[in-house]
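During the practical work, I selected for study one protein's amino acid sequence and its backbone structure tokens, as given directly below:
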Amino acid sequence: SELITGFLLSGMPCPSSCPPGLLALMAPGLALMATFSLPSQAGDRRTLPVEKPPGVKGRTLILLDVNTKSPVRIISENFLSLQLDPSIIHDGWLDFLRPASSAPAPQPGEGRAPAGSRLLRRSGRGGSGAGPEAVRRARRDIVRSDIALDKQKGCKIAQHPDIMLELQREKAAQMHLVLLKEQFSNTYSNLTLTARSLDKLYNFADCSGLHLIFALNALRRNPNNSWNSSNALSLLKYSASKKYNISWELGNEPNNYRTLIGRSVNGSQLGKDYTQLRSLLQLIRTYSRAHLYGPNIGRPRKNVIAFLEGFMKVAGGTVDAVTWQHYYVDGRVAKVTDFLKTRLLDTLSDQIRKIQKVVNTYTPGKKIWLEGVGTTSAGGMNNLSDSYAAGFLWLNTLGLLASQGIDVVVRHSFLDHGHNHLVDQNFNPLPDYWLSLLYKRLIGPKVLAIHVAGLQRKPRPGRVIRDKLRIYAHCTSYHNHNYVRGSITLYIINLHRSRKKIKLAGTLRDKIVHQYLLQPYGKDGLHSKLVQLNGQPLAMVDDGTLPELKPRPLRAGRTLVIPPLTMSFYVVKNVNALACRYR
């Protein structure tokens, strides 16, 4: 067994219209998600209060055009990918992952909850009420489920009984407290992945149509501080014997190892470790051409940039993509107003440029991934990093990364012990889930340049103008058969406390537009964990079916009215954009 640092899923199930083998993350939904239902009486539909600070005009008309001749960037089909925290092994949730097997095809207009992933869920809350004999039967059934997994044909896996699921909830709640204590005290217990756990993880990914990227432990060091690869070699040989198609990484935030093991590892040493890992992979036929990613450094401050430079000098040509992580604010001290600050949104853009400068110095053209991203660090904060307000940072992150040429972004995390995840502890989808779902349904890999007029007020001396209205444009996803090729999708973030009006110009003028407007649902406003789409609350239809994401058609030539403090997508139909006609 190998002590791991994490694992990633680089693709997700496609919509029913997708080619069977395509890994397009989150397209009809996020992997690991499926069987949840929200109460129909989630709350009253309310409009956010609008305050107009002095000097802010709510009726300024903005002219918007898009360059439809050629894309400025082309990102990966797997641009939006997902990270699974190893805590699912620690707290037991790994036993409850199962791929969807033979779910019926959705009816016209319906979506299917992750055609390849489910976490079992039982409606209702409360104690387990399970007697000793019931618990014994439940645990025996789990063993049978594991055997079914080992001997499965066609990815059919036995379900766990409700009693065991309720016991797992109690165990996870207790483990949640333990993991948070470890995080805040910066002392961690070992986590060992057994062969059986690896089998479960890989079968889940494989049956869900996902590609698994496995992060090996880099903390096992020899006396001379080089990487001790003996344990990793055992894992590689085992995975190869099972013919598991896996890509690999080594370590997680290596710039922080001093606090974990009492000694630091510099960039050049980690580069040598990666070279050693590449040699190991080449010795094993199954992985001789496997992809290798790294170094997965933390926020690129001065010392971290020096670390990356040392790594790139030694191993820049060894990795298939250079990876780093970004968390916007400390989750222990964040407040909702932080998520509305344009200065905070712009910190990512500065980091992208720093990473690109180093990478292009040593390996020009090398792909770059943001491999761990969340709104807040330290596990996040309840009712904040899992709220509607956090979506401003998340959607802006997707827009900035795509427009600046970052090939893949890996969201941390689908489900873990903190509050940065996409579903809650009852497997109900959170606002960032619905944002991600719409993104995958509507946004294609080709990024387009936009041209705007009237976006900013007249700058005053000494004042930095930062846009509170963020607009991004892509070719509409080729896999969305509701729209013909050549259509364009805009996504817009309005951080103003007043509505904004946008008039489509140039090639977009007088075209029919489909609006997908996301707003918080219920009395909690920006703190809400529920959202509405075009005025209708979003909830699962049943345990295996996503709701129909109905657009609101706008007549040709109509001005787009963007409500205050909202996020929205607009598909401009039948533009016949040259950049978007062909893949």
About this structure: The chain is about 25% helix and 20% strand. The longest strand covers residues 367-377. Residues 1-5, 12-58, 100-153 have pLDDT under 50 and may be disordered. Residues 162-185 form the longest helix (24 residues).
